[in-house]
Amino acid sequence: MPSPQKPLRVWEPILIGLSAAVGLLVGYNIQFGSNAESLFKSEVVSNLSNHQQDGRIEEVIRFIENTYVDSIDTEEMSINVIDQLLEDLDPHSSYITASELTDHQDRMKGVYRGIGIETIGINDTFYLSGIIPESDAEVKGLKSGMIIDKVNDILVSGQELSFDSLRAMLKDDTRETINIDLVSVTGEQLNRDVEIKEIVVASASESYLIDDKIGYIKLARFSGNTYEQFVESMERMTKDHEELDLILDLRDNPGGYLPEAIKVLSQLFPKKDKLLTYTKGLNREKQEYRSTGKNFYNIRKVAVLINNYSASGSEILAGAIQDWDRGMIIGEHSYGKGLVQEIFPLKNGGALRLTVAKYYTPSGRLIQKSYESETNEFEADSLVVKSKLLAREMPSGQGVLPDIEVNKKESQDCYEYEYYLDHYVIWTMHRANSMQLDQLPLSQNGYEKFVSEYIDAELMRQVSCQLNFDYVVSRSYYKVTGDDKARQTILSENDEAIMLALEYIQNPKPTIALLSNKD
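-> structure tokens emitted (519 positions)
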């Protein structure tokens, strides 16, 4: 899935190159079989035909290695050949190296080894931009905005280190703890021993009650612990409430494990055996996924928020809600990724991520948009299907079209324009020696000057975005400082999609009536 260039923000332990391509790593179907803990298919790719095993590619590489005028890296050459083969198939099939596979598995399980920080880089300096709740970093008093000066007595600040180098220092597999020197926003120097341990990444990244009857859950991805975190969020919100309306925010959610998306989706349908999605492919039999009827919560109205970056599992969930006229889809057109991938380990420790099937919504919509490669061209389905209850017409091949479309303020340009706001807030904190919002000289002109001077001299001239700067910079400030309550308040009062969801939920008419009126 294409996304704005975002070179400076990473989860501390996640491989940089992998995280940049996360949208293409998700949405595949994992056949768990009898081992529910297995994340990958157990068999190694070895059942190739004689024609496929004739060794032509290997023969050419070996011939080049033994004959070429200069020395070459045959491993890199082999990977480039494999990449080209898979790129010729479709946008989502690819090769995963052995190191990427380990990081990918950790990311998709939702657990990684680290100290629990998020970092950004500005010029030659790394700053803490987020602290994972309940991590040892939080226990030891690390705060957003702090500069990483040294790690294990090795100077970091001013050394122009890469993120990969910093990452290796922060998750050193030979250590149980790391010693880290930091400089606070006010200039105070600190030294801490921080334990390296397993950190749970929240895929249900935000959940709270907007009022006594309306809950909000943000699902960042569908990783191996998403359903568990969804249930925990619902438990907290329904503790004193027998029933609840729900806003489910899938904006920027690139997908993930299909079983996790299905389990979340099943909680939104009280009746058993409702078709939620199905998959099929040339070498894969049709497989249906249906609701279990085992609901733990009385969820009334459902509003699902999507945007252009909602893909794969997000589209499965939104498509099923829309097909069954179960709730209101609000936002922008979704991405349009209707291809199912599986991971096939290889003998060299790497893996193939290969498209094996397409998925369809309950009404038979194929979500996948058109694409073209060197050897394969796919023309999106042009069928128009009808929803299950109201027979509303819905086109195939265009992702999921929202029932209520927001004004497209969050365009590609706006994503690129807003991306460095966290950097700007932290940079300004250090210049002002303060973390107090009313003491920070934050302005749109100041932000554009900061980006032009420290990040990308051309970016501000290349993008055009109309926005409420006071709102978006305040949103970034509350995010950086960890003030969730203040951030939630300004989101509810300024986020257009959330405001439209509240308007729909607070309307006394039932969902069926409101959807009928839209047609």
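Confidence is low (pLDDT under 50) at residues 1-51.
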